[in-house]
Inverse folding.
């Protein structure tokens, strides 16, 4: 009775499995149809292969879609005839979609060694080495390689020089340099003489990490062995010098190659071109690119990609695209990396439509985008606040079997936080953990920033605790967010205390932290503290930047200390910090507010004369001042100047223009700019719409309106409390009359106005109005309505809205859920409250955030201890346990509330 062959399984050493032939009789029958992966597939395979003409067996064809390299490895654990094993191994290798890995090669290798088919075994061993796709693969192969050399048993199979050379090249490829050196010494210990390929592998490995000194020792060994360095040797040295940022010596090696009788090839040129590009010498790289023809070398896809990447990185996108088109015309097909470089460049320039077209072109050519390609697109969408598009890219990515990584989620989380969709960002944290991806410092910093942005500092601090719990150390960016938020909330002393504590935590305050704290003190009028912080900053060897000086200058201006502000501008220059357009805009804006128009224009003209071009903020300050004084000619001049300088209005500029003309009674002009604003894809704010509505409601009192020149203030709450519904419809008609496209976001702003004033019926009326025009309420609209219902105590209507949202795939804000659940409990609708909470748990929210906002901030703060315990039980029953740290917070809160 024969014993089965030995196999090497992933993560295991040699394992001899005893499986007699008789075991075949006990194998499960071969199924006639397959709906899911069959059970004991390897055993079924063995049953098929034991029959003659197994290649034509119908059951084998049915099993094929399920076969993986691990099944092949398991199959060879049975006592299979070596020839049959080899035939099957080769047969399945040619099946579409199947590819052997290092483990299946290892299993086949064991079969052949035991059968003493060493010539075939050597071929399989070389193929196994070349099949390495990761460092884990290489280390596994290295283990196999060494054990075959070390053992004295049946599996003894000493490596050949070719085998040594192949594994040295793989170790070099994956930068496993210490292992490479060890294998080289093993080769010498086995009394095998290195050849040129051995030495070249060593030279290449050391050059890849920029260790040219060690590489040159092996070049000298080439000469000592009576061999001659070849093109590969010199090309590696060029790479080594370039990796060492020593392009001069790389060039020297490049120049001596012909003198040494070595023909330069495409890789020699590409390595040097890459080195020049990395050194910022792009024009020299382009010249060398043209010179390639002198050595009869044709640029490769890598040559083109290196240059395209460099041109994109230096803002020369047009040249990059020209080179991209040239390579296609010359028959050099761009690869995934080429397209990724261009897609990334287009995304960074906010050319998202062009980037999407480039992705489509890639896919049409059958190229498979990598996670880097998709990340570039997702990042571009998020930076442009195109969150829905970003998630479309994520869906496309996953449908193409490309798994998102930590960076993908970080970009999406950052984008959602930017749009104040923190509950969705926190839900993505769940997704990351489900995918076994580790949240990074960037993940937590983004989420902390998001919580602070929605004024939930308490949840931000809880995230800080979770971050510490996961072994991540907060950095200066983490603390800068907390200090900035505390200052914006007017809690400057707390911010100062936190600032004083971070040094003990091993964090050095950077210019962002100092600037945020200085700004906080200036905002509360403590300019002297701001100045002392500036001095402390300089003593700490932390260089203030223009932003630091600007917040102090603004603080002085607010205190009407214009002379001191001007002196600080002069001090900036002595400190080597150049005043920016923001610096001058602060000064100009304050002078205009004080009515010092002549002085303001002097400063304006000075900034232009020194080459500091006014931006949209500067012109907006001028417009605001001129409108306040009814100076129409000056307003027209500023608008004309902006057009002349190609400076596009931003959201604030449009608000000033619309508000300015509306207050002065020039309704038609105001609506003209409203159309421009909407066409530019800006959504008018509630304040802007309130001004227009107020203006329309007083059209018959134009004289009174015009007498209110300079009255900028509009009490939004007052407008929406007293506003007649018909005036909103009148606004709608006026907008249509002026050609404005009225989309969901404009309806959202109007509905938010009524909801904030507690006018639910009017808000519902607008929802009906938009539905009649074929538009569905957005998530923001639903959240406005839900918040209004909760604040009015109309909880049954709130429950209906939640159901409608969830049914439409929308997520209510946890703040609204908190109000709804607490309100239902307080009014005695306990079962409804629990039902709402159960529904919440199935929507994908982050369980920690649910516990923080609904249980702790909601129920416990309202002394609803029993209800909190009940909902916590529900979470546990449904397997929605929060983190242990959150659980501890809950226990402490429950105990504290009970004691009180």
């Amino acid at each position: 009775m024969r014993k089965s062959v030995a196999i090497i399984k992933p993560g295991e050493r040699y394992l001899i499995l005893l499986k007699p032939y008789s075991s075949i009789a006990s194998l499960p029958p071969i199924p006639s149809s397959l709906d899911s992966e069959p059970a004991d597939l390897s055993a079924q395979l063995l049953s098929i292969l034991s029959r003659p003409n197994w290649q034509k067996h119908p059951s084998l064809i049915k099993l094929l879609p399920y076969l993986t390299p691990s099944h092949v490895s398991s199959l060879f654990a049975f006592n299979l005839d070596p020839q049959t094993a080899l035939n099957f191994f080769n047969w399945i290798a040619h099946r579409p979609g199947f590819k052997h890995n290092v483990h299946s090669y290892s299993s086949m290798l064991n079969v052949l060694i035991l059968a003493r088919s060493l010539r075939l075994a050597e071929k399989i061993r070389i193929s196994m080495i070349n099949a390495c796709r990761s460092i884990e693969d290489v280390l596994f192969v290295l283990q196999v390689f060494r054990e075959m050399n070390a053992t004295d048993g049946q599996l003894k199979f000493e490596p050949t020089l070719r085998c040594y050379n192949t594994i040295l090249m793989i170790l070099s490829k994956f930068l496993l340099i210490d292992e490479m050196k060890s294998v080289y010494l093993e080769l010498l210990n086995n009394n095998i003489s290195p050849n040129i390929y051995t030495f070249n592998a060593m030279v290449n490995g050391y050059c890849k990490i920029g260790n040219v000194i060690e590489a040159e020792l092996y070049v000298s060994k080439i000469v000592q062995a009576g061999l001659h360095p070849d093109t590969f040797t010199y090309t590696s040295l060029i790479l080594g010098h370039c990796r060492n940022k020593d392009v001069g010596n790389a060039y020297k090696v490049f120049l001596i190659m012909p003198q040494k009788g070595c023909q330069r090839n495409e890789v020699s040129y590409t390595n040097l071109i890459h080195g020049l590009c990395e050194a910022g010498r792009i024009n020299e790289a382009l010249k060398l690119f043209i010179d390639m023809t002198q050595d009869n070398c044709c640029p490769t896809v890598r040559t083109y990609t290196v240059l395209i990447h460099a041109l994109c990185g230096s803002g020369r996108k047009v040249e990059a695209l020209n080179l991209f088109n040239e390579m296609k015309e010359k028959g050099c097909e761009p690869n995934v990396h080429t397209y990724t470089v261009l897609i990334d460049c287009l995304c960074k320039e906010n050319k998202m439509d062009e980037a999407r077209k480039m992705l489509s072109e890639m896919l049409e050519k059958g190229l498979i985008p990598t996670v880097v390609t998709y990340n570039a697109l997702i990042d571009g969408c998020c930076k442009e606040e195109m969150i829905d598009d970003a998630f479309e890219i994520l869906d496309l990515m996953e449908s193409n079997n490309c798994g998102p990584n930590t960076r993908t989620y970080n970009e999406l989380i950052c984008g959602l936080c930017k749009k104040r969709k923190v509950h969705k960002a926190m839900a993505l944290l769940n997704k990351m953990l489900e995918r076994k991806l580790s949240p990074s410092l960037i993940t937590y910093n983004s989420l902390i920033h998001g919580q602070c942005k929605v004024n939930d500092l308490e949840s931000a601090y809880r995230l800080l605790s979770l971050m510490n719990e996961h072994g991540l150390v907060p950095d200066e960016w983490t603390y800068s967010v907390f200090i900035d938020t505390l200052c914006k909330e007017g809690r400057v002393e707390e911010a100062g205390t936190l600032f004083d504590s971070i040094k003990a935590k091993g964090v050095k305050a950077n210019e962002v932290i100092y600037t945020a704290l200085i700004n906080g003190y200036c905002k509360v009028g403590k300019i002297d503290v701001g100045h002392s912080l500036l001095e402390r900053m300089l003593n700490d060897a932390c260089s203030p930047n223009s932003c630091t000086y600007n917040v102090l200058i603004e603080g002085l201006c607010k205190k009407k200390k214009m002379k001191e502000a001007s002196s600080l501008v002069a001090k900036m220059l002595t400190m080597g910090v150049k005043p920016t357009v923001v610096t001058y805009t602060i000064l100009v804006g304050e002078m205009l507010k004080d009515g010092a128009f002549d002085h303001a224009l002097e400063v304006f003209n000075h900034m232009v004369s020194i080459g500091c071009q006014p931006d949209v903020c500067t012109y907006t300050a001028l417009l605001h001042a001129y409108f306040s004084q009814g100076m129409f000619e000056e307003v027209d001049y500023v608008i004309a100047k902006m057009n002349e300088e190609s400076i596009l209005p931003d959201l604030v500029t449009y608000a000033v223009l619309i508000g300015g003309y509306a207050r002065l009674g020039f309704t038609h002009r105001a609506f003209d700019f409203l159309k421009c604003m909407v066409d530019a894809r800006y959504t008018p704010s509630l304040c802007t719409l309130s001004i227009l509505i107020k203006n329309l409601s007083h059209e018959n009192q134009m004289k009174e309106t015009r007498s209110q020149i300079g009255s900028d203030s509009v009490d939004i709450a007052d407008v929406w409390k007293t506003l007649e519904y018909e005036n909103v419809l009148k606004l709608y008609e006026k907008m249509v009359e002026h050609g404005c496209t009225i989309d969901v976001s404009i309806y959202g702003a109007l509905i938010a106005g009524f909801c904030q004033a507690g006018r639910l019926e009017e808000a519902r009326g607008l929802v009906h109005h938009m539905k009649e025009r074929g538009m569905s309420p957005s998530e923001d609209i639903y959240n406005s309505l839900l918040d209004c219902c909760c604040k009015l105590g109309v909880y049954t209507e709130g429950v209906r809205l939640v159901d409608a949202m969830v049914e439409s795939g929308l997520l209510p804000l946890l703040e609204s859920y908190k109000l709804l659940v607490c309100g239902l409990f307080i009014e005695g609708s306990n079962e409804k409250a629990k039902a709402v909470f159960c529904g919440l748990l199935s929507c994908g929210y982050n369980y920690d955030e649910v516990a923080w906002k609904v249980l702790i901030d909601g129920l416990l703060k309202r002394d609803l201890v029993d209800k909190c315990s009940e909902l916590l039980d529900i979470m546990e029953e449904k397997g929605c346990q929060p983190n242990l740290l959150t659980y501890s917070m809950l226990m402490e809160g429950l105990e504290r509330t009970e004691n009180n």
